[in-house]
Design a protein that fits this description.
The chain is α/β, with parallel strands linked by helices. It contains seven helices and eleven strands. It has one domain (3-243): 4-Layer Sandwich (Purple Acid Phosphatase, chain A, domain 2).
Length: 245
């Protein structure tokens, strides 16, 4: 039964054909618990990687788009914000799924509270190497050159980047890849909000902060594996949902 004041937020599912259990969990979530919500926000890294909207015809991508489209057609509203793995999602994906694309960052009214939504990687300012890489791949020139390549070549390039990233993660201090406290405080001030929700770091938690004398909350969404998680918000506040419950 639809709960008009309920909003769900998720991120970091990293869906891929190589992880069928997570894919099936997400499909069950869309067909079941998610349909009680007025809105679902996906804050990036829905896919392990996205090669461009011309990959929509691939069987796995078509399967996920079909599940999202069925969710929207059931009467719910869905929003998508790109992450560092799927920033090449575009208007064709939005048309195929019925999701509304959100710019990063975005401030939305959720449960009556102005809430800052981000994927979260822009907060990890201590990792200078990553921020430099992010700036490169988010540039229009890089995207244009990458999307001009055949799909097979793009896949090889992305797989190579993924392997390099996983190798580098094993040698970096854990704190280097977490949100920087100054960046977090600056984001609260810049957007004049007292609630922030993001993913990316995979460090699911609620952080209670005081910024310029004001109580603030930073909710960090967790990754999905054999279980999922969502942040459920309404007029009474926010709470964690474990999927399946």
């Amino acid at each position: 039964m639809l709960k008009p004041d309920l909003t769900l937020l998720v991120s970091d599912l990293h869906l891929t054909a190589r992880r069928p259990d997570t894919t099936q969990l997400f499909e069950r979530f869309l067909a079941g618990p998610a349909r009680a919500a007025r809105a679902l926000y996906i804050l990036g890294d829905l896919f392990d990687y996205w090669l461009g909207d011309d990959s929509l015809a691939e069987p796995f991508n078509r399967r996920i788009c079909h599940a999202l489209c069925a969710f929207v057609e059931s009467g719910c509203t869905g929003y998508f914000m790109a992450g560092n793995r799927d920033f090449l999602v575009g208007e064709q994906f939005a048309t195929a799924t019925g999701l509304h694309l959100l710019a990063e960052p975005t401030v939305c009214q959720i449960g009556g509270v102005a809430t800052l939504l981000l994927h979260g990687d822009t907060l990890c300012t201590d990792d200078a190497d990553y921020q430099g890489f992010r700036a490169t791949v988010r540039s229009p020139d890089w995207s244009r050159e990458f999307l001009a390549k055949p799909l097979a070549e793009r896949r090889r390039q992305v797989e190579g980047l993924r392997e390099r990233s996983e190798t580098e993660k094993r040698t970096k201090p854990g704190g280097l890849m977490d949100a920087n406290a100054i960046a977090v405080a600056d984001a609260f001030r810049r957007h004049a909000v007292t609630r922030m929700v993001h993913g990316h770091t995979h460090r699911q938690a609620r952080h209670d902060l005081t910024i310029d004398g004001k109580p603030c909350q930073r909710w960090v969404l967790g990754q999905w594996d054999e279980r999922g998680n969502a942040l459920a918000c309404d007029a009474g506040g926010c709470r964690w949902l474990t999927i399946p419950e």
